[in-house]
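Entry: Cys-tRNA(Pro)/Cys-tRNA(Cys) deacylase
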Amino acid sequence: MKHKKTNAMRILEKANIDYELNKYEVTNKHMDGATVAQIVGVDAKFVYKTLVLENAQHECFIFVIPVEETLNMKQAAHTAQQKKLALLPLERLKQVTGYVRGGCSPIGMKKHFPTYIDESALQLQNVYVSGGERGMQIKINSQDLIYIAEAEAANIIE
């Protein structure tokens, strides 16, 4: 079956990084990560969400954490060497990243931002992240994700 390629997929293919695309039906309402994990048929501990935060100067930082976990905002700011961070307002997400809520991938944003992946990913061979569009999850080796996202593993969850 042919599918439309997203920026994330094109970047992975150009870098010769193996990934597996998992497509699922989307509805008009927002689906949380645990629901997506259930639909894709994997334990939620393998599915990671991408959060975009900004500092007071509107500089963005990317945090990738397990879907059932909560970002520790204080630890996130400390990790990014910032005084304080806040979630990027939803209405600016597509303009800043090129992605929409529920389809925000840590790979292939409009520009590269400092990226941090929770260190729990290091304990897993593969993780699932958004493929860059709602209804698409990419299964990728966790080390490959850290490499291609130019990310740093850090303790960033509560």
